[in-house]
Amino acid sequence: MGAPATIDERVRRWSVYQPWLQEDPVTPWNELREHGPVLRSEEAGGYWILTRYEDIEWAARNPEIFSSAQVGIPHRDVFPVKQIPIQLDGEEHRKWRQTLSDLFNPGVVNHFEPQIRQAAVDAIEPIVEKGRCEFITEFATSLPAETFLINFGIGREYLQPLLAHKTWLRREGIPNARTDEELHAANRPLWQFFSDAIDRRRAEGTEGRMDVFSRLVESTYDGRKPTQDEMVNAAFVSMLASLDTTTAALGMIFLYLAEHPEVQQLVRDEPAKVPAIVEELIRHEPVSTTGRILTQDVERHGVTMRKGDRVMLSWGMSGLDPDVFERPLEVDFDRSSTRQLAFGIGPHRCLGMHVARRIVRIALEEWHTRIPSYHVTAASIPVRHYSPARGVARLELTIG
Fold this sequence. Notes:
By secondary structure, the chain is of the alpha+beta class. The protein has 14 helices and twelve strands. The chain is 49% helix and 10% strand. It comes from Kutzneria kofuensis.
């Protein structure tokens, strides 16, 4: 299960699912970037890898060439229709972004911040009483999920069924389903759950409400009301896109904090620096990787990529490019440049980035108010994983 012996073979075998990359993909990725800007893996049917910040940004800013019709490598059609808006291109995508962008803007996040803080406190207080926790299941997974329910106006009593289906879909459904039709069938109960939630919101009334479902019911797309299935689609996609990535970011950031007590003290002593701390640790701890499919032949750095070829874009790893960030492997909370691509860039920039940043900021503030010091539990070993959302599968923490 070890890494291939040569760099050429490591490139050819590269995949976010390779066992030899799970613990530390960063060191091999830096090796890839030095090896070349455009490389070719033969895993999952073959795809190109853009290793440098400038090329990933270039691809993101040219969606007419780099289509989002297939965003996974390997790609699975989770729904029988395209996911709104992440699998859409061109005018269709622009119009849906116009419809959805106001649902996740900073004003909406500000409105729900007290409820998100309360959810964080509710998760932290039992940990304080025990003096220890398994951070991923007890905090990093639950807080983004509760935030999703709060933003969408769904009762917190639905937390466990939502998490159970999401966990099954990511760990078993998408990797193991023999056909996409099996995935479609398995998703029908949750699809119906979201449809029922929209019906409840209509029945209760939407006037004066700020939650996503209320505003979605009142929104327009291309001069008409969105259909029920379109609203369910957008909600389902928001769940899939936000929960795993925010959980992954929390896991990576708190693992770093647990191993660096001086940064814990900085959070306690200088709370005004928390936004800068969050931004730098999001850059330093790469999370997200997605894919694109080419709509035409294109040449880059002397390499011709053909129409129909797939391309991997590692948004997180781009933050470690030394051509853009001085001393990229060091953590520097006073960096002058924060133009990272952790949330993407261009037309497909993450709609939920304001929510994600706020969740992480609230987590740091509320956690360190109640748990001023902590460390990785003695004799436990954090379990890291590399995937489309790189993160930590298990993280045992002890207070004190």
